[in-house]
Design brief:
This protein is α/β, with parallel strands linked by helices. The protein has helices at 42-45, 55-61, 87-103, 119-131, 148-156, 182-186, 194-202, 209-214, 254-261, 288-299, and strands spanning 2-3, 14-15, 18-21, 29-34, 65-69, 111-117, 136-140, 158-160, 174-177, 207-208, 231-236, 270-275, 312-313. The strands form 3 sheets. An 8-stranded mixed sheet has the order 3-5-4-6-7-11-12-13, sandwiched between helices. It has a 3-stranded antiparallel sheet with strand order 8-9-10. A two-stranded antiparallel ribbon has the order 1-2.
C-alpha cells in the first residue's frame, strides 16, 4: 500500500509492503502487527519450533485475520530519509493502515486489534492516543520503566547499516545491530536456543536515527494515559531491557507488571501476562505458542466476558 509520513498534501508517497492472511471461516476482526526496531514482518512469520506455527499462523488458526507489514525503512518497504522516520510519523502511517482495513482497501473489518512488539508497541500507543481508531491494543516487549544500563548497552550495539554487508548501500542514518549481538540483547538462552539466535541474526533488519531518538519517549506516560480501549501488556520474565529486580524493575509475576504500570494507562482496561523463560523477542523463544494463545484468548474478551486463563486484570 502507499502511505505518507504526514498529512501534508504535498508529502511524498512511499510503498509499504503488507500481507493479509485470513482464516477459513469469515471474521470481522483483524490483528494488525507491528514489529520492533531492527525487525521486519518476519518477526511475526517465523516459528521458534521446527515445523511449528508462527505468531501469524497461530492467530489465523484462532480465527483472526492478520495484517502484517514491513514498517517504512525495513524489509521490502521504501526507505525515506532516516530523520523523518520516527514514532510520530510512523503512528500516522499506522493510522492509514487502520483506515485501510476498515474501508475496504485491505478488507472490511469491524474490530481492529493493534498488536506490537517493543518499538512497534510504542508506535501503537502514540497512534491510539492521537487517533483513537483501534478497538484494543496488545503491547508486547514494552514497559514504561526500562533498565538504563541495558538501554545504553543496546544503543552501543548499533552501527550504520551500510557497514553491514547485508545492508550495503543503505541511506545515511539507517542503523542495524552489530554482528553477534542479538543473543545478549533479545534472547534468554534457557528459553531460546543458539539456533534461534543464529536465525535472528540472519533475519535482522534496520532502524533509523529518528526511531532511535524516539526511544526517549518510552518512559513518558502522557500517551498511555490518553488510552481508553482495552490494553494487554505481555512481557517475558527475562526481558533484559525491562526486567532487573536490583534496579526495582520486578518481573516475577503478572501482578508485578500491574504494580509497575497500573496507574499509567488512564481509562484503559488493563491486563497483563508474564511469559516464563522468555527474553525480549518473544516470538523467538520456545514459549511463543503460549504467548500467541494468551493474546488470542484475551482478544476474545474485548467485547464482553470471556476466559483469559493467562491474563491478570490490573483494574
Amino acid at each position: 500500500m502507499n502511505v505518507t509520513l504526514n498529512g501534508d498534501m504535498l508529502a511524498p508517497h512511499y510503498r509499504m509492503a503488507s500481507w493479509l492472511c485470513t482464516p477459513d471461516r469469515p471474521t470481522r476482526t483483524v490483528q494488525v502487527l507491528l514489529a520492533g526496531l531492527t525487525y521486519d514482518h518476519r518477526y511475526w512469520t517465523t516459528s521458534a519450533r521446527p515445523a511449528g506455527r508462527s505468531y501469524a499462523q497461530e492467530a489465523v488458526a484462532a480465527g483472526y485475520a492478520v495484517l502484517y507489514v514491513d514498517r517504512l525503512g525495513t524489509g521490502r518497504s521504501d526507505r525515506p530519509p532516516a530523520g523523518e522516520v520516527d514514532v510520530v510519523s510512523e503512528a500516522y502511517v499506522a493510522h492509514q493502515v487502520v483506515a485501510a482495513v476498515r474501508d475496504g482497501r485491505l478488507g472490511w473489518y469491524e474490530t481492529v486489534i493493534a498488536v506490537g512488539h517493543s518499538y512497534g508497541s510504542m508506535i501503537w500507543t502514540v497512534e491510539a492516543a492521537a487517533y483513537d481508531d483501534v478497538d484494543a491494543l496488545a503491547l508486547t516487549g514494552y514497559m514504561h520503566g526500562a533498565d538504563p544500563l541495558a538501554q545504553e548497552a543496546a544503543r552501543a550495539r548499533l552501527h550504520p547499516a551500510a557497514a553491514d554487508p547485508a545492508f550495503a548501500g543503505s541511506p545515511d542514518g539507517y542503523l542495524t545491530t552489530m554482528p553477534g549481538t542479538r543473543g545478549a540483547l533479545f534472547h534468554y538462552l534457557p528459553g531460546s536456543s543458539r539456533r534461534l539466535v543464529a536465525l535472528d541474526e540472519r533475519m535482522k533488519s534496520t532502524g533509523t536515527i529518528g526511531e532511535l531518538a524516539s526511544l526517549a519517549a518510552i518512559a513518558d506516560p502522557g500517551y498511555t494515559r490518553r488510552l481508553r480501549r482495552p490494553v494487554l501488556l505481555l512481557l517475558g520474565d527475562h526481558d533484559a531491557l525491562f526486567c532487573n529486580p536490583r534496579a526495582g524493575l520486578r518481573c516475577g509475576s503478572a501482578a508485578d507488571l500491574c504494580a509497575r504500570e497500573g496507574t499509567l494507562f488512564g481509562r484503559a482496561r488493563l491486563s497483563a501476562v508474564l511469559v516464563k523463560d522468555t527474553g525480549h523477542s518473544i516470538t523467538m523463544h520456545q514459549s511463543a505458542p503460549r504467548a500467541a494463545r494468551a493474546i488470542s484468548d484475551w482478544a476474545r474478551t474485548i467485547r464482553g466476558p470471556g476466559r483469559t486463563p493467562d491474563a491478570r486484570s490490573c483494574t
